[in-house]
Amino acid sequence: MTRSEGYKVAVVGATGAVGGAMLEVLERRNFPVKELRLLASERSLGKKLLFKDQEIPVQVLTKDSFAGIDVALFSAGASRSLEFAPAAAAAGAVVVDNSSAFRMDPEIPLVVPEVNPQDIALYTKRGIIANPNCSTIQMLVALKPIYDKVGIKRIVVSTYQAVSGTGTKAIEELKKQAKAYAAGDPIKSEVYPHQILFNCLPHIDSFLENGYTKEEMKMVNETRKIFGDTSIGVTATTVRVPVFYGHSEAVNIETGVKISAAEVKELLADAPGVKLVDRPDLCEYPLAIRCQGKFETLVGRIREDESIANGINLWVVSDNILKGAALNAVQIAEVLIEKYIP
Ligand code: NAP
Ligand code: 3JN
């Protein structure tokens, strides 16, 4: 740690599901925080949040919120990022943005530290680094060692995404629906267009003209940008399921050359950010209810796809609020302070 005794950090959207996890991760990883500025909307004025046993008041986000800040972690939605991230960068902060606002901007790096940490260097162009979508992050943490070893031509992925990906209101909606069901009361849906309890909704984010959802196309486009490979084929079906925390993904890949399931297991056993959980004989495989609070992405059910020459199937599970958002952002900030803004 330098910048004398630590860094001045702002968390934008501090009262949200991701913002709260940012505070948890900064604390758990002992990020060298000299000053912490918590920012949210006027609704949160008067609130205080705990960081390292200290109560810190929440301030209202304005364009003047960033004086003296070294690193600004944004998770208050894309429109807030578009409006305020350039102001934060102009004030001298390096922004790590969790929204989709800048992900596909060619001047802004899109980074998963286990996959393309070298791209962080491009932050100097605009002072902003984008965090990918949660579903993309966990998939690429699992696929990177395979990509490097034998290449990947095509990815077919189906996701099973937890309601926490939609934010605190959706967590409450699932809880309320479960209580209403148990009490025999009518079930109301306000966050999602249909009941989420006991249901699967093949609808995450809005629909596009090509019939896919934005969430599905984020997985396609972000994967290509992060791997720096426009030739890789990616097709996704993203589904919301009645799980509180932890996104699960069934991932099918066609590799450049043949690799056996045993070789994939060997590769992933030592891969950064991965925990291999693949003992079907003991009923051990990645589970959403086991991933909460974990920093690793859990990978299991590794099998050869017997329908093609060079195919592999995997089941990939990760805490969507941690590795899918807050942890990935803090890991980017760690590389930043270690290598670029000591
Ligand atoms: P959330 O629980 O609904 O929290 C939203 C946060 O944004 C709250 O702190 C809220 O403050 C703040 N906010 C909203 N409007 C604001 C405004 N006008 N000015 C200042 N602050 C404002 O949502 P979340 O789940 O934490 O997600 C927040 C964002 O993070 C998402 O919109 C998305 O862009 C990003 N995200 C990314 C991923 C990923 O895949 N990497 C995953 C989830 C979320 P108040 O409490 O004061 O309203
Ligand atoms: O739905 C999920 O599981 C992940 C949600 C991500 C999200 C939610 C609201 C707005 C995003 C995102 O990160 O892509 C955004 C957005 O910034 O577009």
Topology:
Layout: E1 7-12, H1 17-28, E2 33-40, E3 48-51, E4 54-60, E5 71-74, H2 78-90, E6 94-97, E7 128-130, H3 134-150, E8 152-161, H4 168-183, H5 214-227, E9 233-240, E10 247-255, H6 261-269, E11 274-276, H7 288-291, E12 297-304, E13 311-318, H8 322-340
Parallel strand pairs: 1-2, 1-5, 2-4, 5-6, 6-7, 8-9, 11-12
Antiparallel strand pairs: 3-4, 8-10, 10-13, 12-13
The structure holds NADP nicotinamide-adenine-dinucleotide phosphate and ligand 3JN.
Residues 13-19, 40-41, 43-44, 61, 75-78, 80, 98-99, 131, 133-134, 165, 167-168, 324-325 line the site of NADP nicotinamide-adenine-dinucleotide phosphate.
**What do the pLDDT scores average to?**
97
Fraction of residues in β-strands: 15-25%
User: Which parts are unreliable, with pLDDT below 50 for 5 consecutive residues or more?
Assistant: none
Give the H and E element order.
EHEEEEHEEHEHHEEHEHEEH
Number of helices: 8
Shape from CA axes?
Answer: globular
Q: How much helix, percentage-wise, in residues? A: 25-40%
Please compute the radius of gyration using only Cα atoms: 20 Å
Note the main sheet.
Answer: 7 strands, mixed
The helix-and-strand class reads alpha/beta
Q: How far apart are the termini?
A: 7 Å
> If strands are numbered along the chain, what order do they take across the biggest sheet?
3-4-2-1-5-6-7
Give the strand tally: 13
